[in-house]
Amino acid sequence: MEVTVNGTTHRLGSEPDVTTVHLLRENLDLTGTKLVCGAGVCGACTAHVDGVPRVACLTPVTAWEGTSVTTVEGLRGEHPVQRAFAAHDALQCGYCTPGFFMEAASFVDRWRAGHGDTAPSRAEIGAALAGHLCRCGAYEGIYAAVAAACTRGPRCR
Ligand code: FES
Ligand code: FES
User: Where in the chain is the domain with CATH 1.10.150.120?
Assistant: First the structure.
């Protein structure tokens, strides 16, 4: 089977009876994708599959055959929401941050395509990030960063 990750196509042997988070971290050395709960509830293992955020901890590699996967490494630190997280101190230990990046980047892109540079409400941001947990409680900064990225405020350019 083949899977494309961050633009590189990998041909896998007969071994891929593993979860996708295992493939990313252990086989491809893409350790930005985190394994925390392993149960599909915290969002730390989120990657984009054909442009849609998906958790990687419960999904067998075979389910992503033929897809195009983007991990946090694939954002290359260039998405506005990543710069906004830094500007708004939206992290403490940072372990949840890659998962938030992937979900928030997708939300910001969708939001801007549909609403231009108007700001989403707090409830709308909360709904978009509902599948993600931050044990450090950095939510105020996270919400502020996502709002700033949506409006392309001067601090996130
Ligand atoms: S590690 Fe996958 S959702 Fe928590
Ligand atoms: S910054 Fe530590 S878990 Fe979110």
Answer: 80-156
Q: Using a 6 Å CB cutoff, which residues line ligand 2?
A: 91-96, 134-136, 138
pLDDT in tens, the chain (157 residues): 899 999 999 998 765 678 999 999 999 999 999 999 999 999 999 999 999 999 999 999 989 889 999 999 999 999 999 999 999 999 999 999 999 999 999 999 999 999 999 999 999 999 999 999 999 999 999 999 999 999 986 444 4
Query: Which CATH topology does 80-156 take?
Result: DNA polymerase; domain 1 (1.10.150)
Ligand 2: nearest atom to the Cα of 136: 2
CATH of domain 2-75: 3.10.20.30
Instruction: State pTM to two decimals.
Output: 0.94
Closest C-alpha among 96, 95, 52, 44 to residue 70: 52
CB distance 37 to ligand 1 below 6 Å: yes
